[in-house]
Amino acid sequence: MTPFSSDPQGIKGMFTQEIESALRSGEIDIAVHSLKDLPVNMSPDLPIVAYSRRGNPFDALVGTGCDVIGSSSLRRRLQVSRLYPSARVVSVRGNVGTRLRKLDAGELGVNSGLVLAACGLERLGMAGRISRVFTADEIMPSPGQGIIACQGKIDGNYSWLSCVNDSDSMDCAIAERSFSRCLGAGCNIPAGAYAEVDGDILTLRGLFIDDTGNFRRGVLSGRHEEAEYIGVKLAGGILG
């Protein structure tokens, strides 16, 4: 089987490295990222210092066709293949605008669609293009999806970001990313995670797709201050 790689050219990683270089040099004061695009193993000198309130965490279908479905993400493609077994699932790369232009130009063929992050479409003012939002049972989202992260220096004072930092988003992100980290998903292993906070309780759901194509799922709840431990324990249980 071909080794897992959702970003074979390392484009996201290269872009992140450029931003981190600017942060270290003082060219910028903070870096703002879509959290799902940040590696789970962060540079220790450049931690995440604030988490936005979470937007829509789920994936969405653009287009009404299901004969051909495109996505740049291996995690999505493997889940779409199970959800639409008769569809031809293909890799479609580029930013959101590029992928939508390919869809609109008919490059994917007739009766085709794309799977994209719902939050990204909504933030770009393209919510009207969404024909279906998938539940986590249908397509487990990427860890941190829907959250904007601020990255800063380890010795910096970022108290001024307290007005945008959301504690529930932070706890969910910590649980989801620790789950992914323990699975080795930083090496592009397809995994998804979604956490929710209800009062003092955080519930984490996780998915890991192994190299034989086996879908391994699990769910674990605990106190929200144990977010990292919940992610680690769920990953261990799924790996068995």
What does this structure look like?
The chain has two domains: 11-56 and 143-239, Double Stranded RNA Binding Domain (2-Layer Sandwich); 59-133, Periplasmic binding protein-like II (D-Maltodextrin-Binding Protein, domain 2). The model is unreliable at 1-11 (pLDDT under 50). The strands form three sheets. Strands 5-4-6-3-7 form a five-stranded mixed β-sheet, sandwiched between helices. The protein has a three-stranded antiparallel β-sheet with strand order 1-8-2. Helix 2 links the parallel strand 4 and strand 5 (88-91). It has 240 residues and is of the alpha+beta class. It has helices at residues 11-25, 74-83, 96-104, 118-123, 167-182, 227-239; strands at residues 31-34, 48-51, 59-62, 68-71, 88-91, 112-117, 130-133, 148-151, 191-198, 201-209, 215-223. It has six helices and eleven strands.
